Amino acid sequence: KAIAQRMTYSKTHIPHACGMDFVNVAHLVEIREHEKAKLEKMGIKLTYLPFVIKAVSLALRKFQTINANFDENTSEVIMKKNINVGVAVDTPEGLMVPVIKNSDHRSISDIAHEIERLAGLAKERKLKLDDMKDGTFTITNIGSVGGMFSTPIINPPEVAIMGIHRIKDMSVVKDGKVIAGKVMGVSLCFDHRVIDGAMATEFVNEVKQYLEDPDLMLLSLE
Question: Which of 18, 62, 70, 102 is most buried, judged by most C-beta within 10 A?
Fold first, then answer.
């Protein structure tokens, strides 16, 4: 009931708009394959989600209006100093959104470890209030299920949410040549009272830049 009420509120009070794009993550796939065995020995499962969280977190530093809340009562945009990314987790009890605090300052391995810890607590219904509060942006990972695009519902009072999807083998054009690529669909739904289409597109382009060239994230995998 709580989820239904929150989603209904979001769709009836927030003017949603959505942008979608493809990201060629071929280099990211190589890095993840190279590093995952090392992290497994440390007890950390390395998925693609930590890379996405890091890319989004770094992009939010530049686009502070997207790292914000909207106050319905005063119609004010409250830009947040800290970047705290919530991750939607599907549990037997319904959808929960634990929050990774200060995600822009964390290493990929640290983010991966925190995802596992929070997801485990969510599935065991042991999340504390502090684990789910103070989020400034949400990511929902639909890739484990499938699909290329979606239109996720914003988690109020946040002003945007990103859906990430399954990586598929697709042909891409690079330097005028058709090559095999690893392509992931991303969807950004945003509050059109706060964010316009141009800003949303520029933000997605910034995230794409980090995911297509992960070296830009100055990865720290230890």
Answer: 70
pLDDT confidence tier of residue 124, bands split at 50, 70 and 90: confident
CA angle at 169 for the pair 60 and 164, rounded to the nearest 5°: 30
- Under 8 Å between Cβ of 155 and 191: no
Position 218 confidence tier, pLDDT thresholds 50, 70, 90: low
The per-residue pLDDT for 94 is 75
Q: What is the per-residue pLDDT for 25? A: 95
Paired tokens of 82:
């800290």
Catalytic residue list: 192
* Amino acid in position 14: I
Is pLDDT of 97 > 70? yes
- Please state the rounded mean pLDDT for residues 93-117: 91
To the question of pTM greater than 0.85 for the whole model, the response is yes
Q: Could you give the count of Cα atoms lying within 13 Å of 45 in the half-sphere of its Cβ?
A: 7
User: Is the distance from CB of 190 to CB of 66 less than 8 angstroms?
Assistant: yes
